[in-house]
Each structure stands twice: as C-alpha cells, then as structure tokens.
Amino acid sequence: MAVSLSPLIFGCEGLWLTSKEIDFFAESQPFGFILFARNLESPCQIKDLCNELRLAVGWRVPIMIDQEGGRVSRLTAPHWFEFPPALDHADHINSERLFWLRGRLIAENLYSCGIDTNCAPLGDIAGPATHLVLKNRCYGSDKARVIANALALDAGQRSGGVSGVLKHIPGHGRAEQDSHIALPVVSDKQAELSNTDFDVFRQLPSINMGMTAHLVFQDIDTTAPATHSKLMVDLIRSDIGFDGLLMTDDITMDALQGDVVQRAQKAWAVGCDIVLHCNGNFEQMYNLAASSGPLTNETKKRINQVIANRPNPIPVDILQLKEEFDLLMNE
Asked: Which end of the chain is more exposed for a tag (fewer CB within 10 A), N or C?
C-alpha cells in the first residue's frame, strides 16, 4: 500500500465529519473506521459519511460496523432488514441456510451504504452461565453447530461484498460478567477450553480478521485479560493457529485498566495488530495516534492479505432471499 497506516481503528463523533476530524484522519491514517448509532440516520447519509471518511484518508479504507442482528443492530427499520437474535434459529433444521441468508441480507444493508466490513461471525459457544449480554447473540450451544453456522454466515456476507471479523477470540461464552463494565474471569482448565471454546476458532481459519476477548483465562494467565496477555495472544497464534489480522475489542471497555494509551500500548506489546477505539472522543484518538508506532512487518502482511481478499458482491434477487428467510423462520 502507498499510504503509511497506523495500527488503529477509529470511530467518529456524528453524522458528518468535522473539519478537525478530516484533518486528523488525513494525518493519522488509521487502518479503518467503525460506525455506531450516533453516525447513522439514513442510507444516503451513511453513504455520504463513508465517502467522507475515504476521501479524508485517500484510499478505500475498511469501514466496519457491528450488525449481528437481534439486539446488536446498528441499522434498524424502516430503512433496513431486521433479524431475530441468532440463537433463536441456531438449532433450526435448516440453520446453515438461515445463517447464509442472514449474512447475505445483512451484507446487502451494509454494502449498499458503503460499509464493507461486519464484526461477525461470532465463535462463542452459548452455555448455561453465559452472560445475557452475549448469550442470544451466539450461534449455538455446541461446538459443531457454532462452527457450521459461523461458516455459513461468513459465506453469506462475503457473497454480498462484506468481509467478516471473527469474534471473540479465543471464546467469550464462559464469561459470567459483561466485559463492557467488568473483567470476566474464566476458571475452566485449559484442556477443556482447548477441546471446546478454543477449537471453534481453530476450525474457522478462512476468516482473516479477528477480535480479541477482554477476559482472563485463569488456568493460562492469571495476570491479564487475553487482549493484554502475551501468553494468550501466543496461544491464539500458535495453538489455535489464527494468523489473520488480530484487533482488540473496544479499548475503552471497563474490563481493561489504565488510560486508553496505556491499554493500547499493552495490546500492541503482546502482539495484537490493531487497536479498536470506538467512542469517537477526539482527545483520546489524538493521544492514541501520537503514541502509536509504525506497523510491524507481520501486521503489514496481514493487512495486505485482508485488502487482497476483499470480496465482490454477487448479484441476487434480494427480496426473494428475504422471503425465503421469513418462510424458513416460520416453519
């Protein structure tokens, strides 16, 4: 790539960029951007905002969103398709087809607005103790079901021109607390985790972007959450075998300690490629950009792979697919 990128993904403040944001993004050159409800009003407005972001940095920068369906839906009616929680149809006899359709329909919503990356699929296994903030977002309660549904959803969204981000590596399903407000601790043994939660992510190597989990795995590293643990990042790379672009979950979540710069520095130090900063706070973004170093050679290779692997949409009859989804859901 011609531009010199920083290892950051930023949010922005509102529906349009301020002149200060335009200048800052042009100088800081983040790897990508992420949009939230505060940035979304209508299809035309979102397309204009995506164009502004790409003009600011001078290239077709990845623009992402959390559009899982269910409760985690940034794009809602009346402009966009809406979906039930993923767990509602995880065990359906035609679950893989439903998840493919879900991915393709979500991609239609996103790509038509200029958004080319979705923070999905989820590889987390729903269990009896999974916190409610996550549970009905999961793709199943057993490993095989989660793997099959995740592959199907990713294939669906890629067929609509949208790249996926696999989350939450190495597995968030055993967390009994909400990492937005506290640090979850998982006490299960590594051998058990390796055969279940971790193994889901081993079976999804085709997805070349991933997001870490802000939780402590006590049997592996008692001192730090996965995002800040060299032991855990090494496990993600070697044991799980994930060699894609590894980004943090939102660095401002309360599961982590320290100011945002300290949090980011820890994540980079242990081997995370990219730090995700979501809230659009200009001062925090400025400080992060000022403290970030150049991309490592490994991160450059992974970014190049992500860019080279961008999918192109395959034309379909989208209303026919929506009708098929609705019919299957009502069986």
From this structure: C
Within a domain: 109: yes
Domain range for 52:
28-329
Q: How far, in Å, are 44, 48, 50, 122, 159 from residue 311 at the CA level? A: 23, 22, 18, 19, 7
**pLDDT tens-place string over residues 243-279:** 999 999 999 999 999 999 999 999 999 999 999 999 9
Length of the chain: 331
Q: What is the rounded distance in angstroms from the CA atom of residue 22 to the CA atom of residue 27?
A: 9
Residue 186 lies in a domain: yes
CATH code assigned at 116: 3.20.20.300
- 3-class SS of residue 11: coil
Nearest-angstrom CA–CA distance, 62 and 162: 10
State the Cα–Cα distance between residues 199 and 9, nearest whole angstrom: 28
| Euclidean distance between CA atoms 250 and 253, whole angstroms | 6
How far is the C-alpha of 157 from the C-alpha of 102, rounded, in Å? 8
Domain count, the chain: 1
Query: How far is it, in rounded angstroms, from Cα 218 to Cα 56?
Result: 43
Instruction: Report the predicted TM-score, pTM, of the whole model to 2 decimal places.
Output: 0.96
